Amino acid sequence: MTYKIKSRIWVEVDNVTFLGEGRVRLLKSIKETKSLSKSAKELGMSYKKAWNLIDSVNKKAEKPVVVKVSGGLGGGGTTLTKHGLELIEMYESINTNCWKYLDKQLEKYSQD
Questions:
Q1: Residue 24: exposed, middle, or buried by beta-carbon count in 10 A (0-12, 13-18, 19+)?
Q2: Dihedral through CA 20, CA 108, CA 110, CA 92, nearest 10?
Q3: Run of H or E residues at 36
């Protein structure tokens, strides 16, 4: 038998969710699509829900995470800032390290 510990990690600011798996998926999608609307559709959520999640992240972040780009030749869109990219990397690193730690802890008990 193979045992595996599963966990979900999220980051809170003032007891309110700041970053979690869903918000990071949305940020990663925005990075690819350059559109909040397309990202919401891709992830199967309403535009309003996606907007509320991004607005919440932006309000709790030290610096802007997502910015709107005004129209022009290619039209408008949404883009991640450098800080937004750093937050994705931070979250994924924490998640990966947490899973590795949990796997090591479980190995201690599986060896008996």
A1: buried
A2: 20
A3: helix 36-42
pLDDT tens for 7-39 read: 899 999 999 999 999 999 999 999 999 999 999
Q: Are 3 and 10 in contact (CB under 8 A)?
A: no
Give the C-alpha separation, 81 to 63, whole Å: 9
HSE (side-chain half, CA atoms, 13 Å) at 77: 16
Phi-psi region of 3 (alpha: psi -120 to 50; beta: other; left: phi over 0): beta
> What tens digit of pLDDT does each residue of 58-85 get?
999 999 999 988 766 666 789 999 999 9
How much is the pTM? 0.86
Q: Would you state the structure tokens that stand for residue 4, as one six-digit string?
A: 């595996």
Supply 110's token pair.
Answer: 């599986």
